[in-house]
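dumping the sequnces here before i forget
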Amino acid sequence: MLDIILAEILVAAIITFFVGRKLAAIIAMAVSILPLIALLDWASLYGFNIIHLGIEKSISIPIAGVSLNLAITPLGWFFALMIIPLFPAIMLFSYSFYKKNDGFYPFMLLALLSSIGIIMAKDMLTFFLFWEMMSWSSFLLVYRSRDKEAVMSYFIFSSLSAFLIFLGILIIYQQNASLLLSSINIESNAYGVVAIISLIAGFAIKSVLMPLHAWAPYVYSKSDEPFVAFLAGGLSKLGYYGMFLILFILAGAKVLETYFTNLSPNYILAVFGALSAFIATLIAFMQDDMRKLLAYSSIGQLGYIAIGFGIGTPLAVSGALFQAFNHAFFKAVLFLAAGAVAYRTGKWKISELGGVGYRMPFTFMATLFAIFTLAAIPITSGFAAKWLLYESAIDAKYIFVAPIMLIAGVGAFLYSFRILYGVFLGENRYPNIKEAPKSMVAAMFILVMPLLIFLIFPGYMLDMMHDALISGNIATLNHNAFVIETSLASYNTIAVIVALMIALIPAILIYKTRKHRVVDFMDNYLAGELPELYDNKISMHAASRFYKPIEEIIGPYFEPGTMSYYMAIYRGLKAISDAVRKIYTGKAGDYAIYVTLFLLIIMGWFIWM
Amino acid sequence: MHPVLLIAIPLLVAFIIPLFKKYGPSIALGALALNTGISIALFSVVYSTGTVHEIIAGFAPPIGIFLAVDSLSALLAMIINLFALINFMAIGKASEYKFSMLYLLAVAGSTGIVITGDIFNMFVFFEITAVASYALVASRKDKKSMEGAIKYMILGSLGSIFILIGIALIYSQLKSLNIYDIASRISTMDAKIKWASVAMLLTGIGVEAEIFPLNGWVPDAYQGASGGVASLLSFGPSKAAIYAIARIMLVIFPLQKVYYLVLTIGVITLLIGELAALKQENVKRMLAYSSIGQMGLITIAIAMGMNEKNAILAIFFLMVSHASSKASLFLLSDSSGMGSAATKYTGIVSVLGIVGMPPFAGFWGKWYLLMAAINGNMLWVIVLIFFSGIVEAAYFARYLHRYYGNEESFSRLTKYSMAVLATMSLIFGLLPLIYEMGLKTLFGMGGV
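..and the predicted 3d for all of it:
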């Protein structure tokens, strides 16, 4: 059955290459149903009796003389939960998004196939093979954007990531003479440490941890939204899957700790995560392009997962996995919403949009809920996840990480507020557009569902990750459906809801009793400045340069940008290349001299060495 | 099916072609098809029974001439003939009878190098291949192709002389030309003469195998040649030559001194080739430099093959991968674009193949090569291979970006032939054929 799932996705990928766009979307949607059913069936292995079909959980596929071993593990199952369900929804969205079938569906299906392969890999060869397949199939999807920066940076960074991972795998192979995950034991010596660090760096590229994120803003902002939704929501989690595997299941965190006695390398991972969350949030303030804003938001939000893995306590890791799950869904919704808005208006710039929500109320609702979760507004599941993370940082006395995280958390609301206000509310600039097509709206609402479930029952999330945590030798938190017990306090959904209600009462009272005035869009009631740089047609609020004062202060610090450092390396390489090229002078006489010299040198080598 | 037919048929047909000028290309196509059939039959024989030794003219070796088809040569003979057939179809109408004749000679020569078990015969086939290749490079008849052909000829002749001297040195000592006979008695040779002969052979064959710094002709010749010829050079003569190096180094001289030398040469060739390609604007030149890099990779695999079974597997995979991907890229380089579905497919698949993405053959090549490197504790080689891989990714990303989607002017047959050629890398990356052939080989394990 498992091999049938992989085979049907492969066959569908080939078929969708040739058929029309609507049929392709339907086929792609249909084949992703079977893995979903399998996912529910495997749930019974981890204590959830949803259905019982008895789909076996381990196979091996012969290819080029070796066999690829796949098995469903608790960790793989948990990550599958946040990757596979995105797929049918995104396909539903794409049903009316595309005008023609030009390579989107086959490569998306290959990306799905390889993600399933990665999270089910039983040995490192299988893992790496599917990792590379995922890299190139997603590269071909990025390729459709035809944007030079996006294409080149994605290809080069993917190769870099692949090589770092390959290096780690090679060293592990040398130490264990085996590639089976179950028999790997990383030794605590310099080689082992190099292996762990290069693996984590390789994974960090895919999960856009700063400073290895440089490709993401280009790729996320230039590719098609349905693909970016899958890339940011699903594929970026594969990097964290790999990190969990190395740090906890293969006990890499312990190896690092015993090797470095003085400084804690896990702390460094947490710091990278925190900086990523903080800096990306600041950069997101300054973006006018909705997709770029969401790209930096992704970098920031994914940073939290690294913080959790870095701290490494049960509380932190639970929070990180919770955050990963939330991020998969809310970021997919947000990118799809950006796609839906652009589908109707053709615009991505916040300064050119406004009032879209009056005409697209359902898109607005989905976006609103996703943004609440992103910004960790209380009672959303985003709040529960970040609560666990904050508490773990405080508990572990990470005095640098905890405050930065908190600031970044507030920042997340400040930039996502601009999407709500600048795109969906405000001046009604698009009075003649229609709501997004039904399939798009349906797709967004499907993706919002899981967030709603875990809003009410955050404890269920801990149930689902229970076995994954156990397999990584991490204790689980005490909890029931509504309450998560932590060491400092406990997170209680009911209590949070009640507290929120109580807090809302005065707010509602104030809102009801105060008189309201209708403001002009040139009114600086939001304490903004008059936008003298723009002509007077652009109204002044969240739409354009809302955080101008902040931008003026922090902007210069981000001036050259990370990409420029990578570009400097690239230019250096090109200079070397130019020098090397000069060896080939083009004169036959020189070449004849090279041949003779070569002969003399190797004769000398043989006779005197 | 006698393996000598593989050499005899194209040689014979090449000399018949001038009698039927008008039908030259069709006759050549027929001969190539026949040859492909025979090479596949030979492959299946070797696949099921192991190395085939065929005696020619009834004299038993070591005195008589004989053919030794081991698993790698069977594979390469099949690759050369099959790809030559597809490539010839891709060249299509452009070929006239002289071209067909030279083409057949080059194919016959390359196949001969691969399946002969006699060192002097190897030299003769080298000469046939080289002379045909010089003329093929010049066949475009413009200034660039003349320039390339002349440089190729100067260096090629220089190389031939060294091969001949190397053979003469061995013969003067051992009075034998049979590879296995030489291999079994190599220790009885005078040390200085032995080393001189190794150096001569390595230099001479290295010119044809595009090893740095003997490869000065490569960029100019590939740039001057038409796409079809450049493609032939990349899967025919150069593969045969690198195979000859593998056979001579692994069968005759599997010695520690040679190991370090060949490894160093391989690493330098890899780095020089990939770095030179990075800033190259001309597609054919870029692909030529990239070929140099790939040859370096195969040379590294040959060096490691002296101690490591995994590296032998890597030689197999890398050769097939490079032959398939580079051949289709060269064919594609005739027109500055990938406009239709077939050419887009060709471009993407060949780039993925050459960069070594799974499940293409190149992935397994790199995988086994690096496995061998880590078993030999050579972290520096691994890091350099990774570095060159990233450089390679950079210029191929640029290449795709520049040419994808542009207008093109290929005939339908050319497009589909290219696509088939590119797909070979995928097919050989999925089927267990190469792996099983690789396990059968006794190369570098002290056997024949």
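Chain A has a mean pLDDT of 83.
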